[in-house]
Amino acid sequence: MARKPLTQPRKNAVQQRSRATVDALVEATARILVREGFEKASTNRIAEKAGVSIGSLYQYFPCKEALVAAVIDRHNAEIMRVVRSALAEVADRPVAQAVRRLVAVAIEAHRIDPRLHRVLAEQIPRTGRLKNIEAFNREAHALFRSYLEAHRDELRVADVELAAFLCATSIEAVAHTAVLHGNEALSDEATDALVEQATRMVVGYLQ
Amino acid sequence: MARKPLTQPRKNAVQQRSRATVDALVEATARILVREGFEKASTNRIAEKAGVSIGSLYQYFPCKEALVAAVIDRHNAEIMRVVRSALAEVADRPVAQAVRRLVAVAIEAHRIDPRLHRVLAEQIPRTGRLKNIEAFNREAHALFRSYLEAHRDELRVADVELAAFLCATSIEAVAHTAVLHGNEALSDEATDALVEQATRMVVGYLQ
Amino acid sequence: MARKPLTQPRKNAVQQRSRATVDALVEATARILVREGFEKASTNRIAEKAGVSIGSLYQYFPCKEALVAAVIDRHNAEIMRVVRSALAEVADRPVAQAVRRLVAVAIEAHRIDPRLHRVLAEQIPRTGRLKNIEAFNREAHALFRSYLEAHRDELRVADVELAAFLCATSIEAVAHTAVLHGNEALSDEATDALVEQATRMVVGYLQ
Amino acid sequence: MARKPLTQPRKNAVQQRSRATVDALVEATARILVREGFEKASTNRIAEKAGVSIGSLYQYFPCKEALVAAVIDRHNAEIMRVVRSALAEVADRPVAQAVRRLVAVAIEAHRIDPRLHRVLAEQIPRTGRLKNIEAFNREAHALFRSYLEAHRDELRVADVELAAFLCATSIEAVAHTAVLHGNEALSDEATDALVEQATRMVVGYLQ
DNA sequence: CATGAATGAGTGTTCATTCAT
DNA sequence: AATGAATGAACACTCATTCAT
């Protein structure tokens, strides 16, 4: 009952151990996913790479999908932290500035862990409960739409929802493709040019 | 080119039979992919649905991936036929007209077999040799870029390659998402509005 | 017999606690056996249902079989209490009366916890040390045989041992099957008729 | 369509091979069941003992239970062949003769493969679809009841159904216990005495 | 060419049991 | 004593692929 009295003994030690095991498992899953792909990510292999017994794996994750979902959630959380803070930051800025920032942030977000992002976006069978990747896109879209609605008087589009869909989809696709499908890493100049042009396209449309 | 003209009938018969077997296998694969997903598409099941023995399947396809690749190729070919003819058709039209037509065609293309398109885009592990889905995108992008280069004097963009990437990526993403991720089928009005706005965005940027 | 009388209270407390833990474990095992069957009765689940750690379970029971054996022993003890007291009660009665009472008691005994009885009789793999269910039968048979030997002069059978085997086996099987394999619970009338006829069969044979 | 023209070529060869595999699997299952018990009868072990790959096992049996069910069916079929023919044989005989024969047959039936019978009766978890063991008992009971009904005028019992239940259950239990739970094999004299006494008990009751 | 029986490495998952804390 | 995290052998089952017929 009495907690945080400077020393959290046993239980905390226990919690730390558990936590370390869980982290090791999620991390091992992500690594295998990135290096060898979804097909090679068997539970036994994950446990082995995590330095944990297969029994322990199933103490913390009810099935293989839960492990992959944890990786997805962790990655999505990182991305959404960046996206949410950017959108909060530009909430009161005019559309031209806001869009430029959001395009830049979309690229940044895709650079957090591009190879993992690629695997999650392209290699995971989107069956059953593993639909979560789109979930985060939906949240990002919704936030962007809220911004546009708040700035409706600056816009010269009739249907804000449609405009939001158009712009958010385009920005995401451009950032995704540029970061993941370019043959080489984007140079700073190329990135600047991309941001500049994408911003021009979107702002030109909205205003 | 001309071979053994005497036994040609026989050989033709054989070739026809082979062709029919191959077609049946590809068709069965596509059907199972659409109806039951990649995970259920085992080679034995495909052979059974195609009314062919598993041995025969391996006479025509060296491995499972080759079968899936054939489905992808067939689908891509259908799409590219539409895209190529549209681009040929608009080759000499002004940008505004051409873009409107291309946006409409992008949507049409995604409607050819949306459920198959979805499976191919989302459910197939993109391991090893199964990268072909992007291949077709690359061709479409290249064709569009050629168009823009031929109409460079109508444009007010500095970097045509970058502009082509931006526009083609956006159009593809918008069409893909609208067709496959909308909760219901797009109405005609919604489609018209989408085409109108996407065209405005792209043309506004290019000119 | 009398040990360390000074620390007895403490020790008693401990013993009581132990006793309670053991009881909880046996009870939990029985409940799971009845409600979910042998296959679901894992040691971890038993410990959980008993509100005891898996470590404690192994402090009191060396292995899973020991737990199941304890359930069997407890159930057998209950049954044998009934059977023994009935046999004591009829020890001096004539055969006709005694048999009628014993048939009734056999049915009563199977009704003590029919679902548990069924699981113990049908679902537990009778491997290794888990043969105990027959043990109780052996004791009941022996008691019945003693009764018959004491009343030998009332009987017109040559081989009392064989007669005891025949009658005890038949009574047990009839009671068992009637209680556990009848589609519905036995009505009072049906039970009466069953007792009447079984008694007639056995007494007719013995006398 | 045209079948049995003296030679059943290919297909027959194929069928023979399949049949041999199936037989080997059922036989291996029975052997392991007898020698090592249900718990040791894993599908991999069965396949190995049958000299067949685990894959082949699953080509012919959809799950482990199906394998065990096949063993049960095979054993039941053997027993029922004996029981059915005995009942057909005695159909027109008077009760006293018929019962003596049936008791003898019950013992014979339990001697067909006593160790297998024991495992099937005692060691197989009677879960789900593995209830078949009782099914054969039901058939034997029904046949016996039919006999009694046909000979009702010879009997002095009020309720033929109840009498059939009583006698069939008793005979089965006595035969089962005598064959399987006696410490040693029954001598011929002991068997004769058992048949004699059981017959006396049952006939005395019926008439 | 066609067949389909056969293969066996590999999968996800369970569970009795141990042992450091 | 009590705890519960950890273990890992074992299980039922799948499926891409081979090869004798």
Automatic annotation (TrEMBL), chains A, B, C, D:
Coiled coil: which residue ranges?
Answer: none
Keyword check for DNA-binding: yes
Q: Does the keyword DNA-binding apply?
A: yes
Q: Which domain of life is it from?
A: Bacteria
List UniProt keywords, sorted A-Z: DNA-binding
InterPro entries assigned: Homeodomain-like_sf, HTH-type_TetR-like_transc_reg, HTH_TetR, TetR_C_15
Which SUPFAM superfamilies does this chain map to?
Answer: Homeodomain-like
Q: Which residues form the HTH tetR-type domain?
A: 19-79
Q: Which residues bind DNA?
A: 42-61
Q: What is this protein called?
A: TetR/AcrR family transcriptional regulator
Organism field? Lysobacter yangpyeongensis
Question: What does the record give as the organism's lineage?
Answer: Bacteria, Pseudomonadati, Pseudomonadota, Gammaproteobacteria, Lysobacterales
